[in-house]
Amino acid sequence: MGDFNLALVIVAIVVCILVFLFNIYLLVNYQHPDDANQAYFPKFVVVLGLSIAAISILMLPADVANRQACRHAIYNGACNLTLPMKDLWLAIYIADAVLVFFIIPFAMFYYEGDQDKTIGKRIKSAMCWVVTTAIVCALLLGILYGLAGKADFTVRHLSSANAPFPNSFNFNSGQQCINGARQCSAYSANASSETTWTMRATFPEYVVALATIVGSVLFTIFGGVGIACLPLGLIFSFIRRPKAVITRSQYIKEATELGKKAKELKKAADALHQEERSGSKGRKWRKNVKAVEKEVLLLEEDVKALEEMYPQGEKAETAWAMTVLGYLAKLILGVLGLIVSVAWVAHIVIYLLIDPPLSSFLNEVFIKLDDVWGLLGTAAFAFFCFYLLLAVIAGAMMLGLKLVFITIHPMKWGATLMNSFLFNVGLILLCSISVIQFCATAFAYYAQATAAQEIFGHNLQSLRGIKYLYKYNVFQIGFIVLAGLTFVYYAAFGWRRKKPSGRFQLSS
Asked: Any coiled-coil ranges, and where (predicted)?
């Protein structure tokens, strides 16, 4: 058993190092040139946040693998050699909450502070905001924990009479007891034997629970939309792809229109900058800033589309060939993603919303894959969890473009500012808690007897007030409804070329 856990520790260390190096690679290649060789603290927070988000997703498969150490235990102390997963879960999610509610806001306030101010004044201004947030959060957490930080467990008193010892044993799914009625007397107890057992939840578990609720609201909205728009967006991107290279005259015409739009946006941006300097930063100003940001993003998409339709330079033919191959890759990934999305939706309906479940579905698939090869089911399990997190990100990006009141923070290769990085990392961290809780519930049969099951299953779903959200499947139902509406939306309008306000429609 010790050797098994030594191997698991080595694998965990290697995976953590690889995750850390991969996140540094993402930061280096996505960062804006203006942030090169500066903004080191926000960069550290970005790498740390992305690493914690990825490790938290991978911890659930690790928890399942850690559970295997006790399956064939030959002595009582064998399970003491396993990893302390419950402590690791609480540590990773307390760190998650601290990053989301304190460190990332501080880094954003510091980064977005007035560049004309000294470093000390920027730190002081950011600390004022963060300390105010910390005081409010501490008061709310303390009051809520004092009033409702208890878990209510429904228990039933069971007892049965003695029965003669049988001459032969014949237990099966239809006969699990030795009495003649083939029904355990203890399980035939009346409803009056039920009672409620109340205990105080630990403060770390309660903090994780509240963070999970906040994340679950975002997860339900973004995940429900993203589970549909992630694959369908790729498929319909292939359908709306440029079919052929446009002529030079068409290119000049479209480029002229885009140039006019760029001048208009620059004029609007200059006017907003003047208003900012004069100190008239009201609600209307912030609304206009977001509108200009949206128009700039749409303009950049049009410019990219125009460059695809009219490749230039000595390698124009090669560029067009790569464009065609890129859209084919989107089609293939979209079809595969659609299969995974449909499997997710079907599993939620079959296993979570129907009582009793019609089938354990994906749980059985993972178990059978484990029988084929020890880590195959665990790898598939991790893939489905990661896919759900990708769906959340895709849904946030889609709604950010559609709804004006959501700040747009697009991630662009080689052109992502640190405030956009920090915003998206905070979103990923906040939703990663809910993704793990959702996966622990959706794959309860496969992940049974794990530390995650104990934290995110029994304890979380028994907390006073919070338990009703899980008892009536509020988040799961909302997830399915939004996924269905998004599927319908894409089926009706996804194949069309969109014409949003202020966006130029390119010639086909």
From this structure: 248-309
Dihedral sign computed on CA atoms, order 272, 276, 279, 281: positive
Q: Which one-letter DSSP state was computed for residue 416?
A: B
Q: How many angstroms separate the CA atoms of 141 and 232, rounded?
A: 40
Helix, strand or coil for residue 360? coil
From 436, 464, 463, 462, select the one nearest 450 (Cα to Cα): 436
Contact status, residue 194 vs residue 156, Cβ threshold 8 Å: yes
- Alpha helices (H) in 373-446, listed in sequence order: 376-402, 418-442
pTM comes to: 0.73
Question: Would you state the structure tokens that stand for residue 457, as one six-digit string?
Answer: 């299953």
Helix (H, G, I), strand (E, B) or coil at 448: coil
| Closest to 361 measured CA to CA, from 372, 350, 375 | 350
Whether 489 contacts 285, CB under 8 Å: no
Q: How many CB atoms lie within 10 A of CB 216?
A: 25
User: Residue 154 burial (CB < 10 Å; 0-12/13-18/19+)?
Assistant: exposed
Q: Mind listing the pLDDT tens digit for each residue in 7-45?
A: 667 777 888 888 889 888 888 888 877 777 777 788 888
Partners of 154 in the β-ladder:
196
Domain edges within the chain: 2-151+205-236+317-360+383-447+471-494, 246-310
